[in-house]
Fold each of these.
Amino acid sequence: MMRSHEAFVRHQMLPQVPPPASQAGLVKWLRENLFSSLSNTVLTVLSLLALWWVVMAAWPWLSNGIWTTTSLKECREVLQGEVGACFSVLAERWNQLLFGFKYPSELYGRPTAAFLLLFIAGAPVLFYKSFPRYLLLVTAAYPFIAYWFIWGGTILIPVVAALGLIGAMLVFRRLSNSSFATGFFGAVAAAAVIWWIGGKISGSAPGFMALQEVASRDMGGFMLNMLLGVVCVSLSLPIGILLALGRQSDMLIIKWICVVFIEFIRGVPLITLLFVANVVLAYFLPPGTSFDLILRVIIMITMFASAYIAEVIRGGLAALPTGQYEAANSLGLDYAQSMQLIILPQALKISIPGIVNVAVGLFKDTTLVSVISMFDLVGMIRGPILGSTSWNGVYWELFGFAALLFFVVCYGISQYSQWLERQLRTDHR
Amino acid sequence: MTSLTDPPAGSFRLSMLLNDTRYRSYTFQFIALICIISLFSYLGVNLVQNLAQAGLNISFDFLGNQSGYDINQRPIEYDSQSPHLRAAMVGILNTLIVSFLACLTATVIGVFAGVARLSPNWLLRKLMAVYVEAFRNVPVLIWILIIFSVMTAVLPAPNAFRGAEPSASMLWDAFAFTNRGIYAPKPLWGDGSNVVVIGFLLSIAGAIYYRRYATKLLYATGRLLPMGWPTLAILVLPSLILYYLMGRPITLEYPELKGFNFTGGVNMLGSLIALWFALAIYTGAFIAENVRAGIQAISKGQSEAAASLGLRPKRIMNLVILPQALRVIIPPLISQYLNITKNSSLAIAVGYMDITGTLGGITLNQTGRAIECVLLLMLFYLTISLSISAVMNMYNNAVKLKER
């Protein structure tokens, strides 16, 4: 039916009208995010109150902070009863906090250089897309350079250690074409021979290109935390992979060895393992050997971390569909090849967040060595610094500083891992 | 790996032990076994030699000897005349006490923070993110030491509460925060109090039964009984009535200042508080992340489907999201409890006498029985961990999605 009469027909579009003031810009954002309902408003007000309380407590303390005195007493004199932090302890004991109190002060440049080199060596691995592959050689050489810088002594020791590994790798490459097992045992034999001969040579020339030697027991401060963290994480990663593969293996004896090891280590706290390193391990070594405490601690923390990493990687291995294993087998790859080329790259990719969690947790746990009277950052604060007459009672500044250092490192690592996860995500979105 | 063809008969050569996949695994296992056995025998021989040299032996007789040291928190009867075994028992109980308190508090904090991280309120979300990141990324030992310093160095001494114009005062006349710990009122169980307690336990059972009945009725007939108020009434009213009927048998003993210290009430040591709260806040941050991940793991379609069925937001949470999210949340939650128990061994840093402080600390140092003490210590923690993982496996099997 046609309409015979049209009262009104609009012929042009209405001009666009800006949204109402309450539906745009800041006001809208505030309404939606902070005051959307009564309960939300209450929460906002409570949060603001809490924030205000924290800021009001912390701000005068921070802004009145004093950096230049030489003892807590002087700080109190300068402050004259006002609230204020005594940051001078950080300024005065800076080197002790970072390097411990026994590391020779004229050699501070060496660990610092090793620390800076860590970034150069780490970059090709961490940001592997933006750096050429040959820079990985720097990474491979880093442990030996860092050892030489931090501990000193003749350069022959790290060089021999590196040569042994290179020799083992070459032998493995040659022999593993025929069989993995011959390659493996050949490599072990080659490394042993090179280290034996090299040990003789470096023992006979202790002064060759030698830096001043520093004993392990002189390490301390945040340097010790970094040292333990970096060494133990990098050592525990390959061991953890082997343990995870062993736990998945069909060979019953190897499987049960791995299961017992992993479950035992995961069942006890790190402190008891550190007790083992401190007081028990000596009983199990040949009579008369004096083993460095730091080395014993590294062994124990590495065992601890590798059990946890093994569980993370086992999760990654279990998450792979069986088709991947079957596809690798049907291509005719043997066990080593299929693991190297097909399974591990995918499993490790899945396990990255877990591995990073373990690494961060381990780095935090390095503070536990202060319990067995090693002077890491926390040990330095609790022992020599808080125990001294001039700084007895400066709790907040010192512990706050320690917390800040750990926060920066751990937060940085976890942010990196999230970035890496995004980089590695190959699924279609 | 299995091979596809049968071996030709009588063709076994020695090299097949290394090259044939059928025999290679036996070779490897044999070598591994030899390595392990030789490693352990090497360690054992060294141990025997070392012990002989030091004139020691392995024996647990020392556990019966008089301990000779005092413990500042004694859940069971103990003094310095008691044997080391008794000290270890006190330590075990102290470990369990602090772990239990910390687990409870960490769960409350963690669930609150995890839910708050998903709140529509921007400010609360950000504050909780700051809390989680700040506490996850700093070693728990540092938090323990910070709270312990607050407890011992910042809080006033008991004598600050004295005098006509004291510089410190008690909270509600019931709680005193001093550098010797927190003093709180202690319940005194008088005659007839067990009737009240039994009544309370019965009313808990009654409340559970009522809720079961209401749910059954709902599923059977669709009739919805009120849940919240009746539950509260069943829980509170009978106990309250019994309490007054029995002549108010349960009273509170308030801490009082006598001489230089408080007497009466419960004294919670600074080290206990430090350990408890540091572990709770630290682990709470991890639990918050687990809770958030668990809730986010439930796909949005689930809540949309529930909403399209006409459920209200609270019921969507209770009936659809939470049952599914709990399946994701509880396993990591239990392993966080395990972590708390293991981390409670850090008590030794603040002098709280848990099992690490008694057996692994003073007993070890006094008797010099390092191997035995550390062995027992590990055994204790291992027992706890294995039983917790057994519980977790049972739970996982119970809630596993039944796939057909």
Amino acid sequence: MALILNGDEEQFQQSVRRLVAERSPLPKLRELMSSGQPFDPEVWKQLSALGLTGLIIPAEHGGAEAGYSVLSVAFAELGAGLVASPLLADTLAAGAVARLGDDAALSRLLPGIASGELIATLAVGAQLGEPQLGEHSGTARADGDALTGEIAPVLNAAQADVLLIPAAAGDATALFEVAAGTPGLEVTPLPSLDHSRSLARVRLDGAPGRRLDGDAAAALGFAADLANLAVASEQLGGMGACLEMTTEYAKIRAAFGRPIGAFQGVKHRLANLRTSWELAHAALRDAARAADSRPADFPRAACVARIAVSASYVDAAVATVQLHGGIGFTWEHDAHLYQKNAISQHALFGGPGEQLDRLTSLLADAGA
Amino acid sequence: MSERSVDDFRSRARAWLEQNAPRRGDGDNEPGGPGRADIAAQQAFQARLYDAGFAGITWPSEYGGQGLTNAEQIAFGEAARDFALPVGAFVIGLGMPGPTILELGTEEQKKRYLPKLLRGEEIWCQLFSEPSAGSDVASLTTTAARVKGDGEADGEWVLNGQKVWTSGAQYSDYGAVIARTDPTVPKHNGITMFIVDMHAPGVTVRPLKVATGATPFNEVFFDQVRLPADSVIGEVNDGWRAAVVMLRNERVAIGTMAAPRTSPLSYDSLSGLAARLGSGADPGLRRKLAELYVRERSVRLFGRLLREEAMAGRDPGPRGSVAKLAGAELGTFASLVAADVLGPAAAASDREDVREVLNAMLSAPGSSIAGGTNEIQRNIIGERVLGLPKDPGVDRSTPFNQLRVGTLRRVEGGKVGSDRRTGDGADT
């Protein structure tokens, strides 16, 4: 299947881009930062109305079944605009539930997620895949249906109607559904570096959960791949926005009698970033296509895309602050919003070392 | 062009290649290029390729081409990737002088030279870089002057000077050469491109030994070489335009060349070597190898994306420079990883697989130089992809004979002609 976008994908890309520009331009994020609100419910309604909440949900559960390539295109646009929303949390929860295949859970959770009325989150902390007991980001353990433990940071936990908690149940990991407000569940919002990413600490003290049927390890593994695809898409969008902003500024800001973009010190740095962006973009398109049509390749391709973009986005965001000079270091300028986003994204759902280790074992498994 | 006819073409190409071409395998990474002995065999293969209808796929049929589109060209390239086609001697002629003559040559030139090139009867080289003109190839000092005096044919030229980094000059029949024809105007405006007969009196070809010890290139000397009036490609003093056409073709050729997986610096080769040398268990090295895999795969996928865009009718244009730069930087990174894989074996080893890697490490900087240095590619990406302003240098407006060119001071210790061999290898 072709890496380049088809006509439908391009059209959808334009729709999301327009929505971001009209409904959630960057001043929106600043409003949220001032008010402390994690996201704007009106914007969330618009995103749901455009169908973003149901892209990977089967039609029988109210979704559009549009696939992962379209999902990646949407996340890239949201990432470029630093749009605050619980879409990533919902997407990972929906992906995990769908892979789990617990019929009752599918009917109970997916229609609400597809319509945007239900916010769900998968409480996996900062790591990828199945939680390892004793790790820093914490895990829960189940005694019958009673859950105990601490998990942090959890995406949109403070806004979620439903939390999906991976917990050690005997020898195996199982997924438990816990509704917001359940006694024994304590959710504490954490100060996020990046305001577009709402994170919280989840404490469980004998909270009753509903155990879901299915292979939880496989579901968590798939959620990890999906997180790589979605976050890499957002990162690529953010990196593209940084490059565009800085390139335009280099054309109009003059020093020593010429636009600063004429100096090779500036020009070459931007050329290097553009090169990294092009490579990451190609890797991301491959990962999105793999998710739709070559599922056996998806874990490796998603990991490659994530590694290709993650550190480069941090580079681009730092360069955006620095190449703008003094103005780029002010609160009024948007550069620091991207820098915060880039640093936070680089750390979430598998930091750089963890991603490289994951890729190493995927390549070893493939006998490469 | 329908998708079906392209698919048919691809399967025909694949079937023909299965029958006629050797498969790519280990041991076909000869760094030195073809030797003189197998030139005849290459010419025979090219003739068969021509007879089968796979030479000059996009060239018009009146000059021996197939008159098809880029889609068929790309389809053939993809089908051919698994084969080691013995056509190295023709890569330059078909990739650079050929398309340039097609675009700018006279009707007579096209009819005279292109069919013989396609059929493998005549081999071409490209003569751009000079000891004093590498990245800044427009500051070349080879001259071509009109012959004056009685008894001479009207408009004949005489060529004097030196070219460097010329691939295949030792077995070429013709070359595309650029020379200064007017030094009193700014450098880009006084250059003309000519066809030069490499067998003509006054042409001397000498092998050029490079950092690895191999001699894959040549130096070419012109001493009072006569050029007929009809050897000009394009217009007199408009040779820079012709050179730009040729360099653009070169960059796309280099940038989209898929590195064979059997390259000693590939992830597959280096992870295999790490396992054999026992360095594969080190967690730091495993991470570096994983990063190499990511970079290698991204470069390959970007090449594929560019080819898809070309097939969809979108001109990749200056983004060929992104592929060229990324490929060169991949080689640089792979060399660093290779050094970690080798450990102390890098300093001394009698293992053949180690020596292959070391040779590839020494070769790697070459790809950051040949076909336009990394710095030149960054300028192109900055100016033509990102649209940043050009550096307003004095060299565009000053008459050439008032410009400073080449190496301005002899460097102590640079015994191997620090003022002679500074070209950037733009002639590959």
Amino acid sequence: MSLRTQRPTITTSKLAFNADAAAILIALALAALVRFNVIHHITW
Amino acid sequence: MSTATISLPPTSAPASLPRRILALLPGTLLLFAIGIAGKSLEALAVWLRSAHRIPFPHIEYVLWAIILGLILSNFLTIPEIFRPGIATYELWLKLGIVLVGAKFVLRDVLHIGGMSLVLVFIELALSLTVMTLLGRIFKLPPKLTSLLAIGSSICGVTAIMAAQGAIDPDEEDTSTAIAAILTLGALALFTFPAIGHLLHMGQQSYGIWTGLAVDNTAEATVTGTLYGERAGQFAVLAKTARSAFIGFVVLGYAIYWASQGQAARVERKALFLWQKFPKFILGFVAISVLATLGFFTPPQLKSLGNLSQWVFLPAFAGVGLRTRLRDLVGQGWRPITVGVLGEAFIALITLAMVFFVYRHGGAQ
């Protein structure tokens, strides 16, 4: 059987923003908030 | 790191920024709801066992989140309104990884990361060779073989997507390679922790093994965390070291296919490498540097570590939500067979390397 028949199509859903830059910015912002005790004692 | 979602059609971008943010809300809330439901179910099971002696099976919150996501995406129809937000699982995954940097001082990153780089280099050479050979034996289309080799050696779907623009494969080949990598990632979730327990592996050795052998960053993080919190963090570290090679491998294949006249020539190689480099790794290193310099107190470091676990919750939910089992099994047996054989080989080789380095898997 051919490899090129009857395969479901898998398409990609990309974010409308740069996830890398957003992740770094949010992480640094959260780190600053924790460092300056705006957010403190996060439990799990 | 995976940026692909099965069978989710590209959404049309709403015009204004507030509307775009608003469009992300339902899916994002769904991710958090599933993640928190997973954590609540784990706590409920503990309570039922301890307070009422009901023999409820112990299932980690990570697995609960994935199971709930799988049920939703495979047995129910997720309304279109949730889809843009579900794609944000990638953001939560990267944010969690950057925050995990707080759990490693720079000396650890350089030592373990450096050691991982050596192991990654060996893993890369072996997996690229084996996948290429298997692709020829099973007579796969050459570019599909290239995609499977890239995906299995570096970081799964992200590497395949990075290669898509560089080697210009058929859309079907990309689709098949993604399906194979996602199928193998799903298999790893269940097989790796069992093997780790069977071999009594330490948290560090198991985590490094997972980071070296499991392709997608999301699945590697989940597979590591299923074994233990520390194992998950080491999986992230090893996987991050592996992801750093993405540009070099994709560039190599781009140059090869350009020499065959079947892809565009790469003119500015340094720029190409920078474009393909996963930038969130820089955030991970930055947080680790701050932790090393004593910017945070020990309780603050603990808080940041806990924060990363909370942020991983929606990412784990996203792994389940984006996995459509029907699509995965419908891609033909040959690519999946090549993937399974190649991945089994890579898992065994990396396991042997980790055992050699860690003296039979004990924690260092």
Amino acid sequence: MSETFTIHFDEGKTEFRPGETISGTITWYTPPSAESIVLRLYWFTSGRGTQDIGVVQKRTWPASFTGSAGCERFAFVLPDEPYSFSGTYISLTWALKIIALPNEESFKKDFVVSPTGKEIGLDNIRNAVNVSWYQKIWE
Amino acid sequence: MKKKEHSKRDQNPQTIKPGGKRLGKFFAMVAFSLVWNGIMVFPIYFSIKSWQDGTPDVFISFMAILLGPAGLLMIGLMFLRLFALFNPRHTLTLTPGTITLGEPTNLNWQINGKAHRLSRFTIYLVGLEEAEFERGTDTVSVTKVFFEKVLIDIQDLKKESTGSLEIDLPANSGKLMPSWESTHNRIKWALYVRSKMSRCPSVTDKYFITINPVATGI
């Protein structure tokens, strides 16, 4: 846990459904040099592939407003997709990240977005007729 | 039983086209075969010549013996691709045009041409994860099938050249990820149609489709 920042989700929830509102409170204690505080709602990939990041929404509080310490409420409506998932080569994680600019000191908290509220596990679901090795090469 | 209702997405039927063309695969094999065998002509020629001259070059002879048969195999594959061009083609139509988790979708299939020549006709629904990464100066991609389901498997096509089936993927299975694409990573879905004529290898045509997430109205 960062001593500079905290992110608390309402009711301690970390599992959400698409279209649901994610809300909570952020607190910070930053050096006077901080010019603004940014809260980013985003997803990122991890695994074999090059990392992709998608920033969905963000909120900024200017330094004149924030001071060196502060506490703010936030609420974001989650989009339909992408879902949180974990596969063999790709995993996708949703997170909220609080960043102090310009030094970019940050803290993030992960959460799950899916229709069940649980991360989608890309297990091998196979119900296929057997194919011979030469057919696989051929195809 | 409560009838499931479609979300307000495109409800129109859509005829889907195969991702890779048979003719393209044939010409790719012709080009690859020409390049490979064009290169292999030289070691084979110099190998034979060295033996005829009584000064056998063992290294070149070894290369010719090792890599020469691969050229023959490619010529064989090239002819198989040529035969595949004459396999009956198919038309697939989805209604609605894209699949949405939790909403039934109708798939109409039609075999164009002489369906009775096929000894087996199979349609699979396949889900793939594909990740791209840099290796040196190249961009490499890896693919893994995470879902594979037989939708239809017919072994006697004497009477059937058309048909329909329903694709109904559960919204809350916790194991299905809809189509998704970012710069280097993607989840792809496809219908693989495998058709086999007697005494010929089977031919698989891939039709890439879109599977939408559950609609929330956002």
